Amino acid sequence: MRPSGRNLGEMRPISIETGVTRHAEGSCLIRCGDTHVLCTASIEERVPPFMRNTGQGWVTAEYGMLPRATHTRMRREAKEGQSGRTQEIQRLVGRSLRAVLDRNALGERQITVDCDVIQADGGTRCAAITGGWVALRLAVNKLMKAGQIVTDPLTDHVAAVSCGVYAGQMLVDLDYPEDSEAGVDGNFVMTGAGRLVEVQMSAEGATFTRDQMNGLLDLAAEGTAALVAAQEAAIA
Question: Which of 64, 99, 157, 210 registers the highest number of CB atoms within 10 A of its CB?
Answer without folding.
Answer: 157
